[in-house]
Each structure stands twice: as structure tokens, then as C-alpha cells.
Design goal:
binds zinc ion, 210 residues
Length: 210
């Protein structure tokens, strides 16, 4: 039985590692180390270098789009990459217990949760399940300020803006919703950033200023 060696990367170093991994993915190149790691069964502890809160969409798996190996990323996936108490708790656990110093909120193009929210705002339904409504209601406040009445939900520019607004809202909710994360940001080098994965190009674009 072997323990995984601590990675001890700073937030900036972790960001570089993710950017490099996405460049490989975009170029259809794969890390041999990452591929070999997928068959490891001897990790008795974990030390991921980054936490990713991403959408559950089947086309947006963080480990693949960042070309990372087993144990490298602590990934939380939920439709619309929303921040509810269980997501905050998961990020707190990862940041406080595993040593990861980078948290990425990863939205993506053509997000079904965003589209569903836009549709719901345009034409409220009466038969939406409570579970689905709980997701839409978390996304809606992020989108409302940018929603113009004359633009329909099929407008690509609107959808893109909505995806990004929702990512930024999730970043802010992580910053403001947790005393543990706030302390780690202020005193221990934790960084929380937003990013958008483009399904069409394979490129992850990290946001400035969030
Ligand atoms: Zn999505």
C-alpha cells in the first residue's frame, strides 16, 4: 500500500498545470503519466492539486478536458455548476483536508441547465419538479440582470453571457458563503477562479478578475 506524495503546488502553479493539460487535450495529445495513473489501485490517501466544481454534463468531464490522472483533481459535478450548501461543504473539505490551493468553477457552452433556466424565465411551467426547480432557482438570480426581454433563449450571445454570469455567481457564492474558504483565501494562498469550457473547440478559458 502506498500513499500518494503531497503535490504542494501553489494556486498559480496549479493553474499553469491545468492550462497545460487543456492544451494537450485540445491538441489531442495525452499525458502518459496521467493515463498510467488510471490503473493505480494503491493510493491510500489523496492530495489533489486542484478542486473543480463543474457541470454534470456528460460532455464536460474535468479530468479529461484537463488531461489529469487519478488523484489529481477533486471534482464536484452538479447540473449548472451551482453552489448549494453541499457543494460549499465539499469544497471546504477538499481545501481544508487535501491541501489543494486552487478551486475552479467550470461552466461550459450549451449548458442545458442554463437553457432550462432561460426557458423557465421566458415561460414559467407549472409542472416542474421540486428538484429541477431547486437548480433553476439558484441559476436565475445570476441571469436576471443580463436578460433583455426582446432576446429569446435561442440567442447564442445571450446564452454565452448567461453561462459566464452563472459561473461568476458561483465563484462569489464560494467566496462569501464559507468562513473556512474566506480564511484560506486570506491567509493560506487559496484561489477561486471561474472558467468556461467550450464544447466546440475543447478550450477552457479562465476568467480574469474572479
Ligand atoms: Zn451544463
Amino acid at each position: 500500500m502506498r500513499r500518494m506524495a503531497p503535490q504542494n503546488l501553489s494556486a498559480a502553479e496549479s493553474l499553469t498545470r491545468l492550462r497545460e493539460g487543456n492544451t494537450r487535450y485540445k491538441q489531442n495529445v495525452r499525458s502518459v503519466d496521467a493515463m498510467m495513473s488510471h490503473s493505480r489501485r494503491d493510493l491510500t490517501s489523496q492530495s489533489p492539486f486542484a478542486v473543480v466544481l463543474g457541470c454534470a454534463d456528460s460532455r464536460a468531464p474535468a479530468e479529461i478536458v484537463f488531461d489529469q490522472g487519478l488523484g489529481d483533481l477533486f471534482v464536484i459535478r452538479v447540473a449548472g455548476n451551482i453552489v448549494a450548501p453541499s457543494q460549499i461543504g465539499s469544497v471546504e473539505f477538499a481545501a481544508a483536508r487535501t491541501g489543494a490551493r486552487l478551486v475552479v468553477v467550470l461552466g461550459h457552452s450549451r449548458c442545458g441547465a442554463i437553457l432550462a433556466t432561460l426557458e423557465e424565465m421566458g415561460r414559467p411551467s407549472t409542472d416542474q419538479s421540486r428538484g429541477l426547480r431547486s437548480i433553476v432557482e439558484r441559476i436565475q438570480p445570476a441571469i436576471e440582470p443580463i436578460l433583455l426581454s426582446q432576446i429569446t433563449p435561442t440567442d447564442d450571445a445571450l446564452i454565452r453571457r448567461a453561462v459566464r454570469a452563472n459561473v461568476r455567481a458561483s465563484v462569489q457564492q464560494l467566496y462569501r458563503g464559507s468562513g473556512i474558504l474566506e480564511r484560506l483565501v486570506q491567509t493560506d494562498g487559496l484561489m477561486i477562479v471561474g472558467a468556461e469550457y467550450c464544447l466546440e473547440t475543447g478550450i477552457v478559458e479562465f476568467f480574469d478578475g474572479v
